[in-house]
Design goal:
By secondary structure, this protein is an alpha+beta fold. The protein has 11 helices and 12 strands. Helices cover 61% and strands 17% of the residues.
Length: 477
């Protein structure tokens, strides 16, 4: 049962092999069928041509025999009257003596069907054979007489072979002696022709089978090559995938450690210092209160309250950097706007944010990815670009949603700064690839320098419009 389940659910390598093998098998099968059909058609034409040539040779031979026989007795027939029985007897004797080979002889029938000469089957002489047919129902004597009345002709029928007594196919040529009302002719058995034709057909079938064997061998070799190539490709791809997975895992660990270090530094350098200051001010106020110096205790208390406010602001900032609550509460548009406002206030860089209301909302993964891309892009701009103006544009369209961030900085640089920014760019690329989206980065250096980062997610990541109660800010997300 498990084996059947594995067959019905092939893995990647099996799918790849099937994808390559099935079209190959179908193509080879079609080629084999066409080759077999064409081979049989051409071979049948050759066989029919051979059969026709052999039969024509036999017929020409029969015609020569009858012509020679007629030349042998024509000096008698040409001078005799229609009722000259002596001349008829003499001609009949001449024809009866014309025996050739082991099977050949001449025959004579009068137009009434009476057999007059038949040296191979003397028992038929003097018998009326009109209406005689062979075992297949083909008329013999009547057809020969009919051809003789017309002058001459060929007739094919079954006739017992003198050597074996068994019926075989015979071709006869008959000539009419109209003055005497005789049908004179001879025949030859064509079983040798049939054997030659059958041998040719068997050879054709053998060639077709051989061709099929060759095609089958070539197909098996091709399938083996495809299988081996697929296995090698699969092994190579797996190794590359494992290497990329290890690299990605390491980068995730590095990013986690970097983020932990950043949070630890901000907690230590920021909040920890502020809280230490609060502790000192509160301790100072406590000592003053212990000396009943209430007036002197008020400034330290005010300073401590101010420092606690600063600490609360820092905690909120760190929390927002880790996971902005506005992204979950109000959507992507307000979250990116808040990010842009904070960036403007912190860096002093002129930052414009523009968006349009679009009915379809993004799913959670897309909102998070686009927000992180915007966050990473602004971080790179702050650290490396030297820009004085940043424009952020977020909008939906028929094919999905697009986030576009442009600046007027010095563009992408080389060296250590490019290496530092490269990790952020790779993070953007990986985030957008997980959504089957596209990331374009355009950069130039010089008078019209600047960088444009455009992230686009496909339509499949847009959710249906919510009810009319959805707020405008939610619709922007």
């Amino acid at each position: 049962m498990g084996q059947l389940r594995r067959i019905l659910r092939p893995d990647y390598a099996q799918k790849l092999s099937l994808l390559a093998a099935i079209p190959l098998i179908l193509a080879v099968a079609a080629i084999a069928a066409i080759v077999a059909y064409q081979s049989r058609v051409l071979a049948e034409r050759e066989v029919q041509s051979l059969e026709h040539q052999l039969l024509e040779a036999k017929k020409a031979e029969l015609r020569n025999y009858v012509t020679q026989a007629r030349n042998g007795f024509y000096f008698i027939y040409g001078l005799a009257a229609p009722d000259d029985d002596l001349a008829k007897t003499e001609v009949a004797q001449i024809l009866a003596a014309m025996i050739y080979g082991t099977e050949g002889s001449f025959f004579v029938y009068d137009y009434d069907g009476m057999n007059l000469v038949n040296p191979r089957r003397t028992g038929l002489i003097g018998n009326d054979l009109s209406g005689l047919t062979d075992s297949a129902g083909t008329p013999i004597v009547d057809e020969l007489i009919n051809l003789a009345r017309q002058g001459s002709g060929y007739h094919t029928f079954l006739w017992p072979k003198p050597s074996t007594g068994e019926e075989a196919l015979m071709v006869a040529y008959v000539l009419g002696l109209q003055d005497w009302r005789w049908a004179v002719g001879t025949g030859v058995f064509i079983d040798d022709v049939l054997a030659t034709v059958a041998s040719a057909r068997a050879e054709v079938e053998n060639r077709v089978r051989t061709t099929f064997i060759y095609i089958g061998v070539i197909t098996l070799l091709a399938l083996f090559i495809v299988f081996v190539s697929g296995m090698l490709l699969n092994i190579r791809e797996r190794r590359l995938a494992d290497a990329k997975l290890k690299e990605l895992t390491q980068r995730v660990f590095d990013a986690q450690e970097e983020e932990r270090g950043r949070v630890a530094r901000e907690l230590h350098d920021g909040i920890s210092q502020i809280l230490v200051g609060v502790r000192y001010t509160l301790d100072n106020a406590r000592r003053r209160l212990g000396r009943d110096d209430q007036k002197g205790a008020l400034p330290p208390l005010d300073k401590g309250i101010e420092n606690l406010g600063t600490a609360i602001t820092e905690v909120r900032r760190i929390s927002r950097d880790l996971r902005p609550g506005v992204l979950d509460d109000l959507g992507l548009g307000p979250a990116v706007k808040a990010l842009a406002d904070d960036f403007r206030e912190r860096t002093g860089i002129d930052t414009d944010f523009a968006t349009v209301v679009f009915r379809n909302r993004l799913d959670q993964d897309s909102k998070t990815a686009l927000y992180r891309i915007a966050q990473e892009a602004l971080t790179n701009i702050e650290r490396h670009s030297g820009a004085t103006k940043v424009t952020i544009d977020l909008r939906g369209h028929k094919t999905g949603a697009t986030l576009r961030i442009s600046d007027n900085g010095r563009g992408l640089v080389t060296g250590s700064e490019r290496d530092k920014a490269g990790l952020g760019l790779r993070n953007m690329q990986e985030r957008i690839e997980q959504l089957d989206g596209t990331l374009r980065i355009l950069s130039s250096r010089g008078a019209d320098s600047g960088t444009v980062i455009e992230a686009r997610v496909p339509l499949s990541h847009l959710l249906p419009p919510e009810d009319a109660g959805v707020t405008q800010l939610e619709a922007k997300a």
